[in-house]
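#struct-pred
JK: can someone run the complex with nicotinamide-adenine-dinucleotide? inputs below
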Amino acid sequence: MANPSLLILPGDGIGPEVMAEVRKVIDWIGANRGTTFDVSEDLVGGAAFDAHGAPLSDETMAKAQAVDAVLLGAVGGPKYDDLDFSLKPERGLLRLRKEMDLFSNLRPAQCFDALADFSSLKRDVVSGLDIMIVRELTSGSYFGEPRGIFEEGNQRVGINTHRYTESEIERVARSAFELAMRRDSKVCSMEKANVMEAGILWREVVTEVAKDYPSVDVSHMYADNGAMQLVRAPKQFDVILTDNLFGDILSDCAAMLTGSLGMLPSASLGAPMDNGRPKALYEPVHGSAPDIAGQGKANPCACILSLAMALRYSFDMGDDATLVERAVEKVLADGVRTADLMQADGESPVSTSDMGDAVVAALNALAA
Ligand code: NAD
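RT: done, structure tokens with the ligand placed:
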């Protein structure tokens, strides 16, 4: 059988730095866990623009469509700020999401015990937190037509359309319920059915889909209450299912419960491929961090944890995914910190590369 295939797109800024550490983990898995990946690497974002004059070439797009999973670092940087909108680095990422039709965005918010004091909330509110936000990514307010700024009488009017079809709701709902079955079997769906017709339809379709997953406990919440509950008592949730607009806000809110941007992975999943696994793009939540790029200061954990998500959702390697997550947890518990995770003056941070080495050492220790 062919090796599982992975396309790596390091991108810009700290992207290549954190991806170098992910490579160490991939190599460790190959040497110690019996799975060798066919890894290819290509350009995206500003790096692709510099080489090809476009933020994602057609060849790279075709490769992304052909592999089992794509792992992306980050795109963007001040050098590209004045480029035409269509050539900006972010357009490369948007093209990947659009052409791969990645409709289900998974954003975990997990609070590692060693970092619980980084949260703006009290330790007991966030310690042990492990929730997953499933956000619809390809429809809703950000894509609905009509959209634009129009003249109306003697003034302008800005219009966006919050539009969802039943099938768009159904497919993302299914992905949330499937996910919940691998977790604590709870889905809380969030919309504004009290004031929006699209919210009423959302609730009806989710209720219908839930019938196919009798072992999953489903609940519904208005999204504004959801935001409040996330801050009041986030541990009541397991999987939160929501649309594009509310998901954008709620996932950022949930992410910050856990502390640093350098720790947050994500996955964007599409329809199943011939092998039954979803099309998938994994990436850290953070950007290219131009303020620290090239200085060996970046925290590679978000990207390493994105690889762990790929192992779990694209390669059916749940045990290996858990091992990688435990290795990151161990490193943090041992007090190894990149600069973004420092709290007190006088502590000395480790470099990006040292952090990657520490994760590999922890993998060795845990697997021994
Ligand atoms: P950013 O996430 O790059 O950085 C925000 C802050 O967090 C910075 O101070 C940065 O140093 C810090 N930070 C981020 N990741 C870190 C890590 N792994 N380790 C330690 N510190 C980290 O967001 P920004 O500054 O708003 O954007 C910078 C560029 O990245 C822009 O061009 C933006 O468009 C782009 N961007 C790309 C993505 C993506 O590729 N998915 C996401 C967000 C922003």
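RT: quick notes.
Residues 130-257 form a domain with the Isopropylmalate Dehydrogenase fold (CATH 3.40.718.10).
Residues 15-32 form the longest helix (18 residues).
JK: thanks, will look after standup
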